Prior knowledge:
The protein contains ten helices and 21 strands. The chain is an alpha+beta fold. The protein folds into four domains: 3-82, Elongation Factor Tu (Ef-tu), domain 3 (Beta Barrel), CATH 2.40.30.130; 88-236, Threonyl-tRNA Synthetase, Chain A, domain 2, CATH 3.30.980.10; 251-284; 285-392, Roll (Diaminopimelate Epimerase, Chain A, domain 1), CATH 3.10.310. It is elongated, with a radius of gyration of 34 Å. The termini are far apart.
Amino acid sequence: MTERLYYADSYLTEFDATVAKIDARGRVALDRSAFYPTSGGQPFDTGTLGGLRVTDVCVEGGEVWHEVEGALEVGQAVHGSVDWPRRFDHMQQHAGDHMLAGALYELTGATTIGLHVGPEISSIDVDMPRGETHLPQEWIDRLENLVNARVQENHPIRCWFPAPEELARLPLRKDPTVREHVRVVAMGDFEMVACGGTHPSSTGQIGPVKIISAAPARGKLRLSFLAGMRAWRELQRNYERAHAAARQLSTGVEELPERLAAALARLKDAEFELGRLRREHLLDGAAEMLAGAEALPGGARLVCAEVGADMAGLRELASRLIKDGSAVALLASAAGERRDLLFARSADVDLSMSALLKRAAEPLGGRGGGKPDFAQGGGPATVLAAAREILRRGERP
């Protein structure tokens, strides 16, 4: 069984060991190892072993197995070197998880049921006392403030294997998931829980902790967060983004929300006015479209056109085209592979627009439906030509 050196010293990155086993997959087990295996939501360490790159580490049957890029031999003496930046980042994230989970339990009684340390973002899944799956912003702020205050107070972090009688007396935040060789992590006098992960020796080394989202996930609350240098880099990026935005609006960062709100209000007004002018221009062209309409068998006028408008605009234009009677309008939006389609006819035209749209669109992969006088749907622009040919032939759809 592998002696796990990281239990005694999370800061140990260089060690010597002997290859004890090699399995059929070429994985290597050592008599002792400082490489942390994937466990408890914390990813494995990387580095080198005997000069070979370590690409995965896991625990099976009490052994710590190392996947390496190359071959080693049983009995071979090897030197191991752990990738310290990766290890310390994981230490910060895992300790940040403890700080958040402990503070959330203290404030709300919530129980943390899972941790995931991702390559960019870490998260904890939380079972809230009354089944809530959201956390109000005021509670997020309160949680962050408490955690970061404790980080700055630089409380000691202790990891140890208590004797059974001591373990029975400890005020653990939740029951251990294992019965034997229970390892306990304590942070100051506010967090104590069973955990086999790697952690800094004090809370000050965790660095800032920033919650970036609190959202439902599989019926629970998921808090996504950044700790340590991850949080610091995000703060740097947001600082640069805020100042870049402020420069574009010729203002200071302090006034950015007000200036942005004013700019968005002006943009909304301008878009409304532009839409109004476009609709007026579109409707003003209805008379010209009717003047150039094609005569159908039976005498109705046919307007068949692609128009730079959304469905609401198509409906307005179609209503204008058929208002004076004896007209059929086959309209499509002018952009995209799949167009908005609208077919309409005057009250005195005896044709079913819903039947026409269905007959023309379905063979071409389109679809639609509606009433005999008004139908709408979507499909390729070729649906217009297909419907036009049906009407030109004098067929009833």
